[in-house]
């Protein structure tokens, strides 16, 4: 499984919102967020670019939440804390990657706790 690299200093884009598709549309392999119905290549490129940015931003955001959760699960103050190996197994990561994610999560939590303007949950809408 590919392991995403945590990104610390990249600006966060405000992408177009992702909307869930109706079940009948999701079942149609030719249907993907209405892109197949856009005839104008300029409009298609614009909408596909918006979706690409939205998916990237969503993926980056979820990686941050994974890191925060990993740091919380590994917190030595927890009586039920997990080892990096156990966290890695649960998230389908290698142990080394789990260690990196725990550290990344700790950095995020310090940013949130320190000034309220970190990459963590403080700006979650």
Keywords:
single chain, 125 residues, mainly alpha, 54% helix, disordered C terminus
What does this molecule look like?
Helix 3 packs across helix 4 (95-115). With 125 residues, the protein is mainly alpha-helical. The longest helix has 34 residues, at 41-74. The radius of gyration is 18 Å and the shape is elongated. It has helices spanning 23-26, 41-74, 84-91, 95-115. 16% of the residues are buried. The protein contains four helices and no strands.
Main sheet specs: none
> Could you give the order of the helices and strands?
HHHH
Q: What sort of overall outline do the alpha carbons produce when their principal axes are compared?
A: elongated
User: Beta fraction of the residues?
Assistant: under 5%
Question: How large is the count of helical segments?
Answer: 4
Overall pLDDT metric: 79
Structural class: mainly alpha
Q: Terminal Cα separation, in Å?
A: 30 Å
- Low-confidence region ranges: 115-125
Give a count of the beta strands, DSSP E runs of length 2 or more: 0
Gyration radius, in Å:
18 Å
The portion of residues assigned to helices is 40-55%
